[in-house]
Amino acid sequence: MSPTSRFAVIHEDDVGMNHGANVAFLELQEAGICTAGSVMVPCPWFAEAAQMARRNPQLDLGVHLTLNSEARGYKWRPLTGVTDNGLTDASGFFWDNVPDVRRHARPDAVEAELRTQVQAALDAGIDVTHLDCHMGAAMMPEFVGIYERLGAEFGLPLLLMQDYRTFSVMGYVGPVTTEEYDRARDRAASRGNPVVALQAETPWAWPNGQDAAYRDLFSSLPPGTSWLALHFSTDGEISLIDSEAQFRISDYELFRSGRAGEMLAAEEITPVGVRPWREQLRGA
Q1: Closest to 9 in 3D by CA, of 278, 241, 234, 212
Q2: CA 16 to CA 64: how far, in whole Å?
């Protein structure tokens, strides 16, 4: 390493959301292209993802802590059940969006639900390597202390970025304060949790084409380690349930083709996984 070295976690979010996400994760992990991913335990294809992880214990797979269900006509519910605790809408599903989660969900219910999701992944035989969260909900000021506590309790590294204001979800989560996050980040860092220089996600617009969008993304990564929250999926049922399906499918095709790897190499960015963070955190 040098002060200018750059590393990137090539992370697949939303494993378990659909069959295509599971297929893409396994293929790209085995090819060494995707370095880590995380599974949404309440989602319909979780069982397949868990089976996949049991058969391939080398997978670098965490839990994508889930408090909302944004797809139209395709929903999931809390593992802790549907009660009057603010976790669900009038139909008994997780809220569509993060602002509604923040307005309605009781912190004690959030903590019980997230702990249940982690334990369910472990009970299903997944060698969980880390925790992160779906659309940033579990890292909002109301819940970030819970998020940090779960990392400590389970001995798992958390996705944390140095500057909360750079979190890629900030455009759709509503106004936030930073004090709660900063305290949680510092507590986690004090016990050895890595803190990434930058977190970024799938480019959801390509004004100059997909390759240009990814070149711009990779060139923007600062020295240190960045976390790229990407959304790989093969074609299939994802086309029916997600308005952004083509971006997910194209993410998969770009990395599968080798073009993304060539761009990373040209930028001298080294892909890294998350499992070593867990071993370091646990003193292994």
Answers
A1: 278
A2: 10
Confirm if 6 and 270 have CB atoms less than 8 A apart. yes
Q: pLDDT means per 10 residues in the chain (284 residues)?
A: 91 95 96 97 97 97 97 92 95 97 98 98 98 98 98 98 97 96 98 97 94 97 98 79 82 96 97 97 83
Per-residue pLDDT at 242: 67
What is the C-alpha to C-alpha distance for residues 110 and 37, in angstroms, rounded to an integer? Answer: 22
Q: What is the pLDDT of residue 239?
A: 63
| CB 188, CB 152: distance < 8 Å | yes
End-to-end CA distance of the chain: give it in Å, rounded: 22
Residue 246: its pLDDT value, please? Answer: 87
Q: Where are the beta strands (DSSP E) in 22-89?
A: 36-39, 61-65
**Could you count the other beta carbons within 10 Å of the beta carbon of residue 127?**
16
- Find out whether 185 and 202 touch, Cβ atoms under 8 Å: no
Q: How many other C-beta atoms are found inside a 10 Å radius of the C-beta of residue 134?
A: 25
What are the φ and ψ backbone dihedral angles of 131, each rounded to 5 degrees?
-125, 140
Q: Which two tokens stand for residue 156?
A: 């798992």
| CA–CA gap between residue 25 and residue 182 (Å, rounded) | 32
pLDDT at residue 2, rounded to an integer: 82
Query: Per the confidence metrics, is the pTM higher than 0.90?
Result: yes
Q: How far apart are CA 284 and CA 4, in angstroms?
A: 28
Tokens 């997978």 correspond to what residue? 59
Nearest to 132 by CA among 175, 196, 82: 196
- The backbone torsions φ and ψ at residue 200, rounded to the nearest 5 degrees and listed phi first, read -140, 165
- Per the structure block, which two tokens stand in for 30? 């085995």
d(CA 50, CA 68): 21
